[in-house]
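input
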Amino acid sequence: MTETEILLIVLIALAVLNIAVGLFKKFNIKPQLKEIENSLLKFDFTLEKTEKSIWEEFRHNRTETNEIARISREELANNLKSFESKFTLLCLLFAFRSYLSPCA
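output
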């Protein structure tokens, strides 16, 4: 082998080694996995916080809805009592009027 061939073989070996090292660095995914793991942990924390907030909002809405329903029932009961008393009075007046003038 001549010197040129030896140098060419060494140069090709170095080029292959350089390509192999470059590919190894490019496909070294451990730092990327750590970054992904950190992102997932941040997302999990945010998700837990959001979930707690949603459940608190549900609890608040349920309490508010129950209070509004209670007020509506009370208002309806009062309106029915008022209607009953007015209707009873009207029926008594009508009966009294009919009693006073049966032919009219």
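quick obs: Helices lie at 3-26, 30-100.
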